[in-house]
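[stage:ingest] chain + small molecule (zinc ion)
[stage:ingest] validated
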Amino acid sequence: MINDRRLSRRGALGLFGALGLTATGLAGCSSSDDTADAATTSTPEPVPTSADDAWAALAAGNERFANGEPRHPHEDRPYRESLVAGQHPIACVLSCADSRVAPELVFDQGLGDLFTVRSAGEVLDDAVLGSIEYAVEHVAVPLVVVLGHAGCGAVAATVDVVRGGPAPDGSIAALVQAIEPAVRGVSAGGDDAAYLAACVEAQARSAAAALADASPIVREAVADGRTSVVAGVYDLASGRVSQL
Ligand SMILES: [Zn+2]
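[stage:predict] done
[stage:export] tokens:
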């Protein structure tokens, strides 16, 4: 039974203790939860402790979002206050910084649910890697999702450069440089939209693979089965996320 493998918010106290945090806020949250509207906010929900369960929770939220039936969970005052004691997010999400790809909205999650890291084109640098390492090592997320998206401007800019266009100004050039190997690995052909979509997928896969290569902390956590890294792509029109 999937619920047997899950941990309730109250059951997560041991983990919070291991992280040196207290559970006072969680205890305070309980009485409020009992009277809250379960369809909106505050109900203590099981916290996934495996990568499969974490992905299932994200997929369910994305389904609600894509269908136009989001719950907008975990935004009310009691829940916010409960999080003062600590965090136990479902997953770490590295997404593009694009304004149309807000992970909490796309996965219909709320405060404390996602450890979100964002950079244009999901480019990895020391700050991004360090943030993800913190999520894996100290927040103990069971899943890291690298989320690319349709119509990514950073990937499109890289396609322009690969096709012979001028390098962009400023530090945007560093983004293009980081994305370029993934784009060069895609066979050009077909229409432009299909090519860009293939490049977007390639960059998300490349960043996910590079996470383990570049980070011994992530690599060891994956090897130990403490976390998993997956790549996904978000479709702007349908609102749906597909795991690659
Ligand atoms: Zn983008």
